[in-house]
């Protein structure tokens, strides 16, 4: 069974690899996430070489159905974040 990596696992990995304090590692991690989110909010894609691309897609409203009851309901339009892995990442996983 594989382990799910958490935010804290990533922060600890940054700390051990770079050799800085845990609080500095946490700040670095938070800054990276904030920059990605800020860029997406401004309508820009975020491409990380050898990793992948984050982008915002607009989904139109549509009619959905509750599978349990069969009731139809409108699903409102919304924006969703999409991630597309790079060819390098795909080849390492395949």
3D architecture notes:
With 94 residues, the protein is of the alpha+beta class. The chain has a single domain, classed as HU Protein, Chain A, CATH 4.10.520. 41% of the residues lie in helices and 29% in strands. The strands form two sheets. It has a three-stranded antiparallel beta sheet. Helix 1 crosses helix 2. The radius of gyration is 19 Å and the shape is elongated. The mean pLDDT is 94.
Architecture blueprint of SSEs:
Elements: H1 7-18, H2 22-41, E1 46-48, E2 52-59, E3 62-65, E4 72-75, E5 78-85, H3 87-93
Antiparallel strand pairs: 1-2, 2-5, 3-4
Helix pairs in contact: 1-2
Summarize the structure.
By secondary structure, this protein is an alpha+beta fold.
How far apart the termini lie comes to 18 Å
Structural class: alpha+beta
Q: According to CATH, what is the class?
A: Few Secondary Structures
Total helical segments:
3
The poorly predicted ranges are: none
Give the strand line-up of the largest sheet: 1-2-5
CATH topology: HU Protein, Chain A
Second-tier CATH architecture: Irregular
Order of helices and strands: HHEEEEEH
Largest sheet: 3 strands, antiparallel
